[in-house]
Write the structure tokens for this entry.
Amino acid sequence: MTLRVDVRVTGSFLGTVIKYTALAMLVPLTVSVVYQEDIWVFALSIGLTVAIGLLLEQLDDERQLGAPEALLLVSTSWVAVSIIGAMPYLLAGYGTTSTLAQPVNALFESTSGFTTTGATVMGEISFEQHSHALLMWRQLTQWLGGMGIIVLMVAILPELGVNGAQLLRTEAPGPDLQKLTPRIAQTARALWLVYFAFTVLLVVLLSGLHWLGVAPNMNFYNALAHGFTTLPTGGFSPEADSVAAFAAPAQWMIFPFMLVAGTNFALFWYLLSGDVRSVAKDPEFRAYLGAVATLIAALTIVLYRGAADSAAVTLGRVSEGAAGDALREAAFQIGSLLNSTGYATSDFAGWDPHAQALILLAMFVGGSAGSTGGGIKIIRWLVIIKAARRELTMTARPGVVKPVRLGNTVIDEEIVRAITVFTMLYFVLYGLATVFFLLDGIRVGYELSLLEAMSASIATLGNIGPGFGTLGPFGSYLAFPAETKVVMMFLMWIGRLEIVPVLAVFTGLYWRSSWAG
């Protein structure tokens, strides 16, 4: 049997991706020098990463990247950088009792970082247990994975521009990629420029709150750390209490940036180009804002009524700030979980069932296509709802011809089919993973409720992070058996790459078929 996919070409480009990952490690290396912690960890990690990258680059000299190799490169790159990213965790934990000294835990934390999931097995998160440099590396992995590692490579490597469109379509979140400029490499640079600019703006604003004295704990280190994980909708924090460790002004400052992160970044490029009309009329953007506003309003009412009921039971009265607190909690948690950020200002795992139901609903919504948000995505829900309405209309009136439209745009039937397949696979994988988590828990004697298993499944597949019960925003995935963690890493991986491209690589047809182009 002759394979149609040249794995040597993919391996060579994979070496380049790994080699450039070493540049990112210069950031935590700088932090380690400043704080005089773990210098050798990152110095050695950089050396090993460069060596591995250079070695893989020698697999092929011509480096002609075709369509099948491009698909394989995207899928394997996320696994490779996660493995490389686990190296600092392993080295820092070597010879200690740290949970990260175990390879499966180190790989879990790294995979969760690069896929912007935000689930953690770190146990105690503190500067007493982990160095400033290691925690900053943890933050940085999410920033690198947010806009996309391959998108970054297309932006900086001219040789990837030949199949850049194929690479970006495979990696970019959402069912379609908007070409903002004539050249795909310029589009990649534009997306990363917008992403970088918003990150810098948030870091400056958070630092400003600290300098003004209204957010005492938000020093420059924390501002940078949360800038690295807000825009990629990651959710990692160097603070054990997440964003709850900071004053309300800091929480309100982060909130709009979470909404920005869940918005199609192409819209911001249109704004910079002066095309406000395209932004205002974008159906997905309007649906996204509508979903956020509706869920915030509903959760605010539930939380406020809960506070009122609690006050009635204790024969007290609702405090004057209860409504404001309910709004802040609702706005932050919906803004965080709808687009898969995973930050928390309180332990929503302890909220009443009505509030938890709204939280679970938000987890299934997702951000916009072309954003860094995870989940199913708003645009898919719009197409599914409109396709369902069409089927009902055509069943009632068989002779009617009714295309699926978004605004004035007719959606191609191939896109409708692709969205239907993706959504079906999403829920099938969600159900299978839930059952597996329950059965594997029984196998090892780990008590796991149905709600915890369900939330663990959607939190990893949707790249959300926190769940319910022991997996709440201040909880951890540490207690899960190793086999379950491996499945969770698989879910994070395929969830970040929109499921279908990764599963396609596992089919025999992919390896045997001839590829055009």
